[in-house]
Amino acid sequence: MNTEKKILELIEHNGQFTSAELQEKFEISRAMAHKYLKKFIEEGKIEKINSTRNSYYKKTDRITSSAAYVFKFSVKKDNDESISFQKISDSSGLKRIVNKNSYETANYIITEMINNVLEHSKSVEYKVKLSVDSYNVNFEIADFGIGVFNSIRQKFDLPTEEDAAILLMKGKTTTYPERHTGEGIFFSMKLADEYFVSSGKISLGHYSKESPLMKQVRLIRGTKVFFSLSRSSKRRIQEVFDKFAGKEFDYKFNKTKVTMSLGKSVKSLISRSEAKRLMAGAEKFKVIELDFKGIKEMGQGFAHEIFVNFKKTHKDIDIKIINANDIVKKMSAHVAEENQVDN
């Protein structure tokens, strides 16, 4: 058994201890003890009591059975998302039961989603549900307004709410450009272990460690956002932002990822119209990753629309293909080569 596991056994048995006791018990240096303690604090397994020489560490109170909280807010009265989050945090003891990474992520996502309710939904009220168990913390933010996909469909004059969902998935989509950048849902989806935004009969998001998907659901009035986080998450907010808006992009949101399948049963992409739908709004970015996971075949018309027509009118945009099979790669290369010959 390694030292880390032995320390965890001691924590479980004794409940509380000091750094000096840890050093003596396991014959490790002060620096090494500090390393272990810092790790356990970040994972939410222990907490430090006092910040003086009299400080000691104790096992975090683990919740072994489910606990749930429901918070109801008025849009008119509770119109400051940061205050609403603080009320949720204080009442549930959120800061005590999750580590720093999870707390900061929950703060970001909840305040972004509540702000969307306040600015876009036209709802008179909203509610937040929080449930927690031994490993995860789950949230649901619901309003009873116009519905996110319906709002986007109307704003951009799109034929269906499905088109609105495809547009929203890329980021930089907002019905209020004077005050919003359209980044909130995009980054929230990337930060959460599980995330779904649902409205009308559509739900868009992802399960844990899976590709984004769009699915049909029973009619939902307004908008409902569900997300889940590990109580001891190792994912840092800055790491996710750097991937899409880091130094490489002058710290601007200039990279997006388009999932070609969105969890649908269709394995072939054939028509130009489907290509246009998937690429709608992509011109706002400098780098576009096209994820072909699950796609077995790509037709010439679909490929030509993206790799020739779109590229011809957006020469400065870098289009990258990921998770593509040989058939998809050959077709994209074929239409690109054909276009060079024609020119």
Number of strands: 13
Question: What's the alpha carbon Rg, rounded to whole Å?
Answer: 24 Å
Q: Output the strand order for the largest sheet.
A: 4-5-6-8-7
CATH class of the largest domain: Alpha Beta
Mean pLDDT: 84
Give the full name of the CATH homologous superfamily of the largest domain: Histidine kinase-like ATPase, C-terminal domain
The percentage of residues in β strands lies in 15-25%
Helix share, percent: 40-55%
Secondary structure elements and their pairing?
Blueprint: H1 3-14, E1 16-17, H2 19-26, H3 30-42, E2 46-49, E3 56-59, E4 67-74, H4 81-92, H5 94-97, H6 100-121, E5 125-132, E6 136-143, H7 148-155, H8 161-170, H9 184-191, E7 194-206, E8 213-230, H10 237-245, E9 255-259, E10 268-269, H11 272-279, E11 287-291, E12 297-298, H12 300-313, E13 318-322, H13 326-342
Parallel strand pairs: 9-11, 10-12, 11-13
Antiparallel strand pairs: 1-3, 2-3, 4-5, 5-6, 6-8, 7-8
Helix pairs in contact: 2-3, 4-6, 6-9, 7-8, 11-12, 12-13
